[in-house]
Amino acid sequence: MQSDLISSILLPLILAFIMFSLGLGLTVADFKRIATAPRALLVGFVCHFILLPVVCYFMVSAAGIGGAFAVGFMLLASCPTGTTSNLLTYVARGDVALAVSFTAVASVVTIFTLPLVVSWSMNHFLGAARAVDMPVGTMMAQVFLMLGVPVALGMFVRHRAPRWAIAFEPRATRIATVLFVLIVAGAVAKGWPLLRDNFATLAPLALCLNLTMLAVGFLAAWLVRLSRRQSVTLGIETAVQNATLALVVASSVLKDDAMAIPGALYGVLMYVGGLAFAFGMRAFVRPENDQADRSAAIAS
């Protein structure tokens, strides 16, 4: 009973607060700004919403992973970019304005794409019976409630009370970070037997997926001649996922603890690859616009 309350009420509320804190750092201008860099937006969308799930699928298949773990990885790959991508972009001297804008837009697009990817994955890895249990429309509505509504509420508060929102947003971000750690710790504790028995297989896959997508995002942007700062940004935006959403969907919507394990692992290991990439790229990017990026990173 207590476990059901945590999965059905507490976890969604924690995710809602995390997304609310994201909304506090957003304005309508963040969505409009992305239109000024349509090529970067297109590359980011291709990398994040197409290449990431495809690469994840082939890696999972090559590793011989199936069942709930495979669905968990595909669920993770279909989540939007994580809010900490903005901070990593700042550390890497990337384009923070692009990172903030892409994070905002990706959170909206995910409402429609995540249910489709997860439904297909359940059908492919678990069979049609499990896929039918979770209709796409129902999941889409649930993801909208967990993502769209809290972000919109945060943006509304930012619009109506900008001074309070700007002052509270850094504190909200710190609270959200603590809550994220608690979610990951809870998922690991709850699924410890599964994690212990499969760590040697799942952890290397999670880290390999992260490093691969950092490289794919960067190289794809570089090949179409985006700036070095934009290339660094899209590498991070492609690989840093909203693992909290993956954990909440697995536990609260799909009600399968095994599906939460890949998200819990990736949620920790992505910072290993992400920080190494950020500090590595920092040496190759000019420190231009550092002051503007510092302001954008703090605001996000």
TrEMBL record:
It is found in: Membrane. Keywords: Membrane, Transmembrane, Transmembrane helix. Gene3D superfamilies: 1.20.1530.20. InterPro entries: BilAc:Na_symport/Acr3, Bilac:Na_transpt, Na+/solute_symporter_sf. GO terms for cellular component: membrane. It comes from the Bacteria. The keyword Transmembrane applies. It is a multi-pass membrane protein. It holds the Pfam family SBF. This is Uncharacterized protein.
